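idk why but the lab printer keeps eating my pages so im just putting this in chat instead. protein + glutamine:
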Amino acid sequence: MSCNKELTYQELYQWGMDRLRQRDIQEAGLEARLLLEWCCGTDRNTLLVHGDRKISAEEYSRYQACIAKRTSHMPLQYITGEQEFMGLTFTVNKDVLIPRQDTEILVEEAMRYLHDGMRILDMCTGSGCILISLLHYSNDCMGVGVDLSREALQVARENGERILGQIKEAECEAVCSTEETRRKVSWICSNLFEQLDFVEKFDMIVSNPPYIRTSVIETLMPEVREYEPRSALDGAEDGLYFYREIIAQGGRYLNNEGMLFVEIGYDQGEDVRALMEEAGYEEIEIVKDFAGLDRVVHGVLWR
Ligand code: GLN
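predcted complex ->
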């Protein structure tokens, strides 16, 4: 397609879908539509109701560029720069892992135990999706998000400002969202707990750390393997490196009766349970995801 004369919305969509199909992109129809809506600022109805709408030269070239990126396996979310998580829209880029639906299980489980005024630590926060969701859906809680990557923290900070700042505006009609956000959440660049010595203790630690075995990374789909940050995926030789560190060191940063919640891979439940038992955690539970696979482990630390 070199010329966009007379091209309609429906035809452009059809072209995009065909291109994605040819390159074996799964859900080609859905992704072609979402990208088209993003390029044209339209919504789902447009295809149904206004399929004969003519497209402009800008829309046409924007869509072509998007389809080219997607056929080279760049994830849709890195093209559009956003991902929904817990009903909130998070900004994402190549510096952060794209928030996964499975991780909502971790957030929902943590919310069952979250009380007003608690302090939460999110270790390996990435886009900040876990911590920001917990703070958004609770009252008067305060959180610290930690990541080794400064670039990731920049994304988390931006998400915090946008999502948590809004609460203040809606509730109090105040303009000081930055002030409010600062009171609610802070972001620390640190290799695990290294820079946390002078931070007050927490009631809850949550973490979705990198947990894929190094040898498995090369077998993942190109969208993940070639585009998502390696440092957000790689859990070292046996995939358990971060659990060992977080479970062994985390206790020092927890108040009495503090809880630890970690997301895990489907086959890591028993290993992580054993590590938590060894570190003195009690009431350990393994929670399954909607596919019936082990997804979250949590426990309490009494002193
Ligand atoms: N906590 C972030 C998330 O769940 C990032 C996780 C990671 O980088 N491993 O999306």
